[in-house]
Amino acid sequence: MSETGKKYFTAIAGNIGAGKSSLTGLLSKHFKWQPYYESVDDNPYLSDFYDDMRRWSFNLQVYFLSSRFKHQKLLMQKNESYIQDRTIYEDVEIFAKNLFEMGLMSERDYENYSSLFIEMTSYLKPPDLLIYLRADVPTLVKQIQQRGRDYETTIRIDYLEGLNKLYEDWISRYPHEKLIIETDELDFVNKKEDLGRVIEVVENRLYGLFS
Q: Would 141 be classed as within a structural domain?
């Protein structure tokens, strides 16, 4: 629970390399929220996917959808405030849609996946506040390179560009509370003043929601 006694569910959305995991950790420490991170390193499909996206796209997306659904169901039962690294909504709105539009997922698989998503998310509560980290592709590439994950070295520029376009479309239609943070000129990991600016806008939005 927060210091005010209210239970907050905050989530961070954004493209690969936008800084979601880093900000999740920093905000959880400041607000004393329980952090929950996207399952990446133990994903059995991720490395194969980046090597052959067409072959493994459906498998990867179903794994992410299943994992996030089970994860969020568990979080909803907890009597504490928490912050989540990436949302289940990005799975269908961004990643599966991008794979379909790039011809890397068949129409049959995409429709099957979308139907499954709609059914599963009808049981879930959306975040009290969604924080979207907006970043241009050069920023994403720089941060992906800095963290040095082997399986990300083959990510294509056009793949990141496609994701960014879908993120912008999705966030413009997102029907619940949201906060957009421009990150190209921010370094909230290494600069305390930048982190302070982010914390301030998050506090202002949350206090406005729950006042």
A: yes
